[in-house]
Records
---
Amino acid sequence: MSHGTEIYDGNSQVEISESSRWLRWIPTSMAQLVKLESRILNCLKSTLEKKYVLLPQSENRIWTVVANKDKPNMPLVMVHGMGGGVGLWAQNIDALAVKRPVYTFDLLGFGRSSRPNFGTSPKLVEMDYVESIEEWRREMKIEKMALLGHSLGAYLVSAYALKYPQHIQHLFLIDPWGFPERPQENERSKRIPIWARAIVKVLSPFNALAVVRATGPFGPGLIKRFRPDLQAKFSHLFDDDTMLDYIYHCNAQTPSGEAAFKALTVSLGWAKNPMIQRIADIDKDLPITFIYGSKTWMDRECGHQCKYLRNDSHVDVEIIIGAGHHVYADRAEQFNKLTNQYLDLMDKHKDNEDNAKSSQNKTKNEDTETDMEDVPITQI
Amino acid sequence: MNFSFAGCGFLGIYHIGVSSCLRQHAPHLIDSCKFAGASAGAIVSCCLISGCDLGECTKFTLRLATKARSFSIGPLHPSFKITKILRDALREVLPDNAHEIASGRLFISLTRVSDRQSVIVSEYSSKEELIQALMCSAHVPLYSGLVPPVFRGVRYVDGGLSDNIPILNDQTISISPFAGESDICPTDRNANTLHIYLANTSMQCSIDNLYRMSRALFPPHPEILSDMCQQGFDDTLKYLQNNKLLSCVRHLSIRSIITPIPVDEMDSNEDEEDNCDEHSCYECKKKKQIALLDKLPTAVGSVLQDAVDEMNKGVQGYIHRHKTLKMLSFLATPWFLPVDISYTYAVRFLEYLPQLPHDVQVMYRETAELLRYLLTNIRHQRRRYTARFTCQLAITEVNYNQIESDIYPMSHHNNSANEIDQIPQNIRNLNFEFAMDLDSDLKNQRELFDSAHHHADNIHFLYKQRPRSGSANGRLSGERDKRKQKESTSTLYSDVFDSIEQCLHVTNQMESIMAYHYWDENNRESCRFEEIYTFQEGDINLSKLFQKDIDLQFDSKSRHRSHSFGHSTKKSKCTLEDDLEDFAGHKLEVVMKEKVHKDCS
C-alpha cells in the first residue's frame, strides 16, 4: 500500500453515519448501502480488494473495488453511469477479470465515494471529474489502461481521454450520454401544449431523482414501482429487491453527483458541451469502441458520426441486439464476450507494438526482419 | 418470434401504422408469428391477424376520435358510448371465423378486478367471446364505464393496468407508441437519462411522452393521429431493415420451400447463406431501396388525408380554427352542458330500464357477499369477544345409592327421550347450571378447548364406572321436563362439564368471599344460594382456563317439588383463542338460544 492510500475500516465509518441521526425522513444510511454492496459483491468469484483511495489534492475519497489485481495483462477500468455504483457491474467483473485486473470505482458524488460540492459551471464540473480520475489513477499506480464508461461515465472518460490520452490504450463507450447536440426546436415539438411545457418548466430546477428523496419512506417503493426492470436485469443473481435497494441507497443520500450532472446538462438531458464537437480532438491513435443496445433511446447516430469524424483512426460501433440503455446488464453475456474480444485484440496489438519496438531496436544492431504484422483492431 | 402491442388508447393508430408496414413488407411474419397485446394493442393485432382491411380500421379510429372531440367535454361526455361503438365495429369488421384464427395466436392481456393480477387469455370459443375479451382488455375504469365487463364469469378491466406489453418469450418484439426501450417505438430526439416502467412499458421521461400519455384517452387532432400512424410505419420499417427481416418475393418462396422449422431459426440460417445471395438478388435490393423511401400504404394514407380534410372543412373545423369562436364555444359550455348531460342520462336510463331488475339482483348479491366478507374479516381482526356458557346443576336428594341412575342417562344423551322417561325414578337428582363468560385474548385457545374435551371424556368415563341402579321409584315424575332440557343441553355442556365438577370441588374446599341465601318467593320450599369465590391460578386443574381473580358466582337454587338444594349457576370469565372463533361462535349461538329457551320456560 502506498502512502496516501488508506484502507478505511468500513465499520467505523458506518457507526459515525448511523449515530448522527436517529430520526430521519429518508430511510437511508451509509451502513445500509455498505451492507447491500457487500451482498452484491459477495456474488463475485474473483479475488476482490476493496478500499477507499484518498485523493491527495482534493482530499476526496474514492471507493474502489479491484478484481484479480495480480493478473499480468493490461488493466480495465470501468466507470458507472448516472445514479449507479460499482454494484451494477456485478455481472461483468468476473468475466472481464479472467485475464486482467479490473478496476471499478464509485464516481465522486455517487455510491460510497465522497460527495463534494461541485460548482454549477459545466466546464469546472467536467474538469473536477477528469482530475479526480487522473489523481485516482496515479494513486492506484496504473500506467496504462483500457477505459470503459457507461452513460454519464462514458462522457467523463471521453473528457478524460481528451486530456490524458497517454494513459489509455483503448476507450470503450457504452451507450454514452452527452454526445449529441441539442437540436433546434422543430415543428413537432412546437405542437406540445403549454401545460406540458409548464410542467417541464416547474420540474426543471430539481435534480433528476429528487422525487425519490422527497418522498422519504416511500422512496424505495417508488423505485420498485417504476423500475422493476432493474431487478429483472439482475434476476439470476438476486430474487429479492437487493439491486433496487442498492440503487435506492446510492441515490437517496446527498445528491452531489446529481447536482454535478445537472450542471452538465441543459433542458432535460442535453449536454451543455456536447462531446460530439470534441471527439475528433481525442488523440487519433486512441481506438474507440462504441457499444449500444438495440433498444436504447440514446442517439446511436452519434457512434456512426464519430466514425466519420475520426476517419483516420479506429472507431467501431457495436450494437447488442435486445439490450436497452443498460447494455452490460441487459445482455451481460454478449456484452462480456464482445468486450473481451476487443480486450484480447488490444493485448495482441499491444504485444505487437512492443515487439515491433524491440525488434526495431534489434534491427539496428542485428539487421533482422520483422515479420510481425499489426493486427487490425477492427477485425473480429 | 412474437409481436406484442402495447395498450395505448387512441394512440392505437400507431399500431395501425406498424401493422400496415408488417403486412406490406413482412407478410411472412404475420402468418407465422404469435401476437399479444393489451387494450388497443390487442384490438389492432386481432384485426391484423384476421386479415381486416387496415384502411377501414384507420377510418374507424379517426371517426371515433373526431366524434370524441366533437363533444364539449370530449370523450367524457355521457353520450359518447365508446364501448358500444367499439363492440359494434368489431362485430362488423372481424370475419366470422375470427375466433378460430385468434385461438392460440392472439394473447390478450386482462386485469382481473378481484385481485388486480394480470391474466392472459388465448383461447376463444366463439367470435362473440373473442370480442368480449377484447372489450374487457380495453375497458378503462371510469372512462369506459362504471361496471367492469365480464369474460367467462369473471370481471376484468384494461390489461394495460397490470401488464401493458405481455412478453411471451425472449423473442418478443415489443411495440409501443411511447418512446422508450421497446423494439419498435418512436425515437424522440431527447437525451434524458431518466426512464421509468409503467405496467411493463418502458417510457422515457420526456415531454413528448407526457404529451402522448395525455392524448391516449383524449384524442388529438386527426392530423396528429395521422402523423403517429406514419411514425409507426416508419419505425417498423427501420426495425425490419436493421434486423434483416424485409422479404422479397423470390426469397420468400425459397424460404417456404426449404424449411419447415420456425421462422426465428430460419432467419439465423438464412443470414449466413443469404449474405452473398442478397447482394445478387435484384428484387431484394430494389425492395430495400423502395422501402427506404416508402410511405404509408395508399389505403391507410388516403383515409388519413380524408379525415384531416373533413375535420378542417366542417363547422367544427371552422370553430376550431378561429380562436374567437373557439373561445365562445368554450364559454358556452357551462350553459349547455348540464342540459345536454341530463338529457343523455335520461335517454340512457330509459334504454337501461329493462335490464334494471337483473342488475339490481346482481348488485344485491354482490353487496351481500361483500358484507359477509367484511363481517368475517372484522371478526378475524377483532381478536377478542365474549361468550357465555351456561350450565345447570340441580341436585335432588332422596337416596344416596340411587344417584347414578339419574346421571347415567345424562351421559348417554343420544338415548331417546322415551328411554329416559322410563328411568326417572332416581332418589337423588343432580342438576347443573353453569354459565361461563368467555373473554378472549390468549393464544392457546385450541389447547383450552382440547383440554375441555379431554376432561369431558373423563367425566363420561366416570359415569360409566358407577354401578347402574335400576331402581324405579316414581317419585320424581316432575323431573321429566327438567331432564329433557338437560338432555338437549348436555351435548353442549359436556365440553365444559368438568369445569363444573372442578368448581364444585373447589368451592367445597375454599371459603367463599361472599355467600348468602334466601328463600324463593314463588316457591317457598326452595332456597337460593349465592356464593362468590375467588380463583387463584393453580388452584384447580383447569386454572389456565381462567384469568386471575375471576369471580365465580354460584346460584344454587331448587325449583323442584322435591326437597332439594341443587341448582347452581356459575358465571366465569375465561380466555379463549382466536383460532377457535368459529367454533366458539357456534357454541355462543347455541348457548344464547338455550338461554332464551330457558328464560322463556
---
Amino acid sequence: MAKFHFSLVSPERELYSAEVDQVDASGVEGDFGVLAGHAPFMTALKSSRVNVRDGSTIRVFQIEGGFADVTPQGFTLLAEQAVEVV
Amino acid sequence: MASLKDMRNRISSVKATQKITKAMQMVAAAKLRRAQDAAVNARPYAERMAAVIGNLAAGVSGDGAPKLLVGTGKDQRHLIVVAAADRGLAGGFTSSIVRAARDHINSLINQGKDVRIVCVGKKARDPLRRMFGDKVLESFDLSAHRTLTLPVAQPVADLVLDLFAAGDVDVVTLFYSRFKSVVQQIPTAQQLIPAVVTGAAKPDLGGACYEYEPSEEDILEALLPRNIAVQILGALLENMAGFYASQMSAMDNATRNAGDMIAALNLQYNRQRQAQITTELIEIISGASAL
C-alpha cells in the first residue's frame, strides 16, 4: 500500500517523523482518517487521541489541541502538547 | 614589597577562585548539553509552523487578512522585545544582545519613530533602563523557571498581543542570540508582527485546492497568536543554549587566567624567598668575618 510522510511535532520536540500507512485524528468539525494521496486540507484539532498505523504496528498519541496540515508532500501535525500513550 | 605571608595568602585566594571558575565551567558544560538538545528539538515545530503559516498566507490576502499577518499598515510605533540572560558571568553574552538592540533602537529613534521596550531576563533590564529610561515598559524575570516550556513564554506573548490588540504598537521585533555553535552566538533581530512569511512558495497541490475546517481566517486567527508564543519560546531556548556556551568559555578563560596568575605569583614568591635567604646568609657571613 502506498505510504505517505507523517510528522507529529510539539513545541518541545518532534515525536514522530516517518512514512506511515494511515493516520486517524479528530478535527474540531469531525474525525478524519488520512491515507496516501489525501486531498490537501487543514484543520484545527480537538484534544484527542491520534492513531498512527504503519504496517501492522499502531502507535497512539494523546494530543491537547493543535493543527493538522495535509499536503501532497505529507501530513504535519502541530500539537500544543503531545505524549505517546503506551 | 609585600611580605612572604601576604604573597602566600594571595596565591591561596587565587587558587580558591580558580576552583570556583573551574566548577562553574563544568556545570555550564553539563547544562549546555541539555539546553542545546532542547533548542535543537524545538526547531522543527517552529519551522513547520512557519511553513503552515506560509501556506495559509499565500491564500489569504486583501482586507480580510488578520492584522497580525499584514500589520496595521503603519510603521510608526515599534515595540522591541529584548530577550537576554537572567544571570551574569557569561562573558559578553548579554551585552552583545543589548548592543544589537541599542543600535536598532537608536536608529529607529533617529527616524522619529516611537519606541517601547520589553525586557525578558534580568540582565537586559538594567542597561536598557539606563539608556532608555521610561521607554522600558515591562520586564520579565524567568530565573524561577528551571525548564522552558510554552507556558513560560506565554505571558510575554500575551503582553505583546495585548499591546497590539489595543492598537499601541505597529511593529514588534524580538532580539535574542541565535545559537550557531558553542563558540558562536549571533545576536539576531526577528520581526514578530507583522508576521514574516518565509518561503511563501505555494506548495504543489497537484491542481487541488486546500480545504479548511473551520475557515481559513479562523485557523489563521488561532495560529498567529500561537506562533508568536512559539517564536518567543524558540528564542528563549536558543538564548539558554547560547548563555551556557558563553558561560562555559568565559569560565574556561577565567580558569586559564587564574592558572597564569598563580604561576606568576609563585615565581615572584620563590624569588623573594631566595632573596631573603641570601640576605640572611650575607649577614651571618659578614658577622663571622668581622670577628
